[in-house]
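Z., the sequence and structure:
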Amino acid sequence: MSRLVWISAGVGAHLLLAATVCFLFPFLMDGRGAADAPVAPWWWGIDALLALQFGLSHSLLLLPQARGRLERLIPRPLYGCVFTAMTCLSLLLLILAWRPSGMIVYRLEGWADTTMRAAYCLSWIGLLYTLGLTGYGWQTGWTPFWAWLRGRPAPPRRFSVRGAYHWLRHPVYLVFLSQVWLTPVMTQDRLLLCSVFTVYIMMGSYLKDRRLVFYLGDTYRDYQASVPGYPLMIGPLGRVPHPRATSG
């Protein structure tokens, strides 16, 4: 019975992911009736909390300490599925509870509107490309779940530099950040979302670097020293000198 529950949870997480994408695509393009909706009371406070709950919960689940505690409660190979499910639920809460401000900062029309929408659609192709570089099955938790389902150990996840990762450490985050900003109708509530998510992505990138140093040690430190996190960045999100090169 317990195994059947976890099988259902693993499959359900991926069905939930598909449903979340169906909601997320139009939400990030146009918002939730943002252009014509009346002003929602206290929209700024509600929306700020919704954006923060996604960023905080997503980051918390990725902490090595939080992951270790969660894996004591569930089968270890299902951590990725549980993470996917909780991320999707957090995103759906944000999308469905979002309150429009009804106040437009700018609205693109004509060729500018078409160009922005085309760029947004292309960003989803970019997202699929960058996610695929590290393996869709690892990103969603399917690879370890499928191995567990067949009674086999999960294949080792190796660190390898492919495609866009030769030039940037965080291409997935960069593409997601572009999706947040690529909208033909910028309202005050969408500007709030863009601002919170920009801060979250920058902080999340820094924390991801720290996690990978924790797991990979000098292998990732060497990578940090040669590849920046983002274009034209300095500091912890630029190239980070290896401690060996600065010691002595």
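The two ends are 59 Å apart (CA to CA). Residues 26 and 32 are 8 Å apart (CA to CA).

Let me know what you think.
H.
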